[in-house]
Amino acid sequence: MTAEHKVTYCRICEPLCGLIATVEDGRLLALRPDKDHPLSQGRACPKGIAFSDVQNDPDRVLHPLRRRPDGSFAEVSWDEALGDIAARLRGVLDEHGGGAVGEYLGNPSAFGYAASLWSGLFMKRIGAGHLYSAGSQDINSRYVASKLLYGAATQIPFPDLPRTDFLFMLGANPLVSHGSALRVPRVRDDLAGIVKRGGRVIVVDPRRTETAAAYEHVPVRPDSDAWLMLSLLHVVFAENLEDTAAIAATSTGIDDLRAMCAGFPPEETAARTGVPAATVRELARDFASARTAVAYGRTGACLGHHGTLVSFLIDALNTVTGNLDRPGGALMSHQVIPVEQFGEKSGAFSYNTKKSRIGGFPDVFGSFPAALIAEEITTGGPGQLRALFVFAGNPVLSVPNSVALESALGQLDLLVSLDLYVNETNRHADYILPGTTFLERDDLPMAYAACCPTVFLQAAEPVVPAYGQARPEWEVFEELAARMGLSLFATGALAPLNPVLRLLERRGLRITPQRMMHALLRIGPYGDRFGLRRGGLNPARLRAHPHGIVLAEHAPHGVLSEVVTHPGGKVALAPAEIVGEVARLGRAPGITDDFPLLAIGIRELRSQNSWMHNSPILMKGNRTQRARVNPSDAAAAGLLDGAAVRVVSATGAIELEVLITDEVGPGTVAIPQGWGHRGGGWRLANAHPGANVNELTSSRPEDLEALAGMSVLNGVAVRLEAVRRPSQSPARYSASRP
Ligand SMILES: Nc1nc2c(c(=O)[nH]1)N[C@H]1C(S)=C(S)[C@@H](COP(=O)(O)OP(=O)(O)OC[C@H]3O[C@@H](n4cnc5c(=O)[nH]c(N)nc54)[C@H](O)[C@@H]3O)O[C@H]1N2
Ligand SMILES: Nc1nc2c(c(=O)[nH]1)N[C@H]1C(S)=C(S)[C@@H](COP(=O)(O)OP(=O)(O)OC[C@H]3O[C@@H](n4cnc5c(=O)[nH]c(N)nc54)[C@H](O)[C@@H]3O)O[C@H]1N2
Ligand code: SF4
Ligand SMILES: [Mo]
């Protein structure tokens, strides 16, 4: 057969860049960027191209696996695996109830719609008491900030990059991450465009990152952004730089916000933030007086001790300067397929409707902090976690205090993983079920695709049939429900979709995730209303435009009063939770004599969290994980460049190679995250293990962020110790240097 070229899009990270897959006989030969993609226009990053290594990886799990008593895995049939899982789950439910069952959703689950929907229905149906996700290590603080500000957690404002004159970026490194909670596949061009138009890009970051080096860098001490943002707002108010008309029209609580900021003049916060008062004053003036300006923050804003507060203050700055919901400012996220609108209606995007058994944390979308999983497994009593599904996740590397988590997993009665690999987490599972890659399934974008300055939609068909016995993950949950005699639709969770479901029923169609999404598409703002609106979107029209359809050049503005669900459609600038959090400021542990430095994470261009280190293309060049240490701190600890360092925190210690550099300031240590491979089925990754930063981070409830239960992954107090002996522990780090 001759090779075919199939249009698709990448689902590794948020830009969803267009790709062309070369396929022969149902096998992928290669991936290349799609020149005809309206947004990415021929751009894709090394990970996207290297996904062919994952698709064709000889180490990929292609059969259901059952763990043997000796820890090795044996292939079993789907029938056997699902039969046993259903029976064992039934046993746990009969003995302990749904409160003993849980699920952890990893990051890749957010890049397909079907399985997260169906697994959610399944968990709801069995009354699962434990839902967790990568969100508590990533973005839940952002959601909670939005819940407090707008009443709608999924309303995540994003910077209108093509039109802004002033981008104030805090804790994001889009030249490497390619943007997060922001869909701009050509982010490099978008940032350059701002400066070309005569605008400015400010990057607030403890590290001189790739993005910071390319633009105006404001170095900041880790975990001090709350003080910086309060000081910026302080100056705006003290110097009467606010937009009073916009404030009056769009918000409530301005007097309380002003009072909250009064105690934080930049002269008093400079010692903590490391940002000189004059710089803060100038930034505040420049931001407020720019024709248009927008503040944007991402994981560096979300993962400190005050992640919800920092995310909140970023939006508050946009609001009080009149830059929220206007061109060139922050635009409200805008969905083509109104999944989130229905989710908000059905109550799926809840906050603080229940509390975690351990720690008493508020739920975020029904989920609790993943940092608590270990203690939820090891703590007896009603609601003890006994059966856990891990879907597209590797929490043993990604969740704080991974040593505790890894040892707790062994106590579960049932651990089931749906994944592409045997990883550090599911090597402890009873069953590993082979999931499909994004090239093997249909998709429609969800979630952060709504944070796009252009209104755009692209649908993807599978470009290759599932390899081996891999199965779409949603079918696994449907099949389990069937084997347990449960209907997924009996809970009322889909009640807001009843008209859609009835429609499918009337047509005699089985309810599948795809049919549900297509129905939502058709009744959504751009849909064809099942023929009532000429030219509207429907599945056939999407198929006719495989590169996607630009529905509007610019996302809408002036929509605040429609999307904000607070009384009068007004933004709440001083909710009690935030007032309380400001009052608590400063009680976070911070540095001590024992642990005088603060550690932060690094994302790398050729990694995707923990799961692409088995790709030969990405691992080329003898990659090494290195801790970045400032020369003064290196001298104080007696470290030599290229030698090994032991990084010690109150939770644990890791060893890795040190890179002495002034890209981090004194007092800051930066360490790449996503490493620490050992014992999974990914052989190349195991040969370049690196160290797991989450052996340093804390899972103690008192160490989590208060409002969203976020893991504190940046600003972790540590000390450095020179490792004198020659590097002898290759299981911990790779000592080789390019
Ligand atoms: N210290 C520290 N820790 C962090 C962070 C940090 O900055 N510092 N970042 C955090 C962030 S932002 C995130 S998102 C989390 C990520 O945390 P996780 O989601 O727990 O971890 P990943 O490394 O993304 O692992 C994803 C898993 O999904 C599998 N997978 C990939 N694609 C598919 C698929 O299509 N189907 C199925 N079934 N499986 C698939 C991969 O093989 C891999 O095993 O880590 C967090 N942890
Ligand atoms: N190549 C690549 N791309 C990725 C990923 C990957 O692993 N590799 N992961 C994907 C995922 S899951 C996500 S969530 C996104 C994240 O997208 P981004 O948030 O843009 O990614 P990061 O590179 O983690 O950027 C966070 C920045 O915050 C800085 N920072 C750390 N602590 C602080 C602090 O206290 N204050 C301030 N102001 N800054 C701080 C860090 O130095 C870092 O530069 O990236 C995605 N894209
Ligand atoms: S930037 Fe993200 S979405 Fe685009 S090609 Fe790279 S991995 Fe894929
Ligand atoms: Mo993430």
From TrEMBL:
SUPFAM superfamilies: ADC-like, Formate dehydrogenase/DMSO reductase, domains 1-3. One of its GO terms (molecular function) is molybdopterin cofactor binding. Coiled coil: none annotated. Keywords: Iron, Iron-sulfur, Metal-binding. This is Formate dehydrogenase. It comes from Mycolicibacterium bacteremicum. InterPro entries: Asp_de-COase-like_dom_sf (IPR009010), MoPterin_dinucl-bd_dom (IPR006657), Mopterin_OxRdtase (IPR006656), Mopterin_OxRdtase_4Fe-4S_dom (IPR006963), Prok_Mopterin_Oxidored (IPR050612). Belongs to the prokaryotic molybdopterin-containing oxidoreductase family. Pfam families: Molybdop_Fe4S4 (PF04879), Molybdopterin (PF00384), Molydop_binding (PF01568). PANTHER family: ASSIMILATORY NITRATE REDUCTASE CATALYTIC SUBUNIT (PTHR43742:SF2), TRIMETHYLAMINE-N-OXIDE REDUCTASE (PTHR43742). Residues 3-59 form the 4Fe-4S Mo/W bis-MGD-type domain.
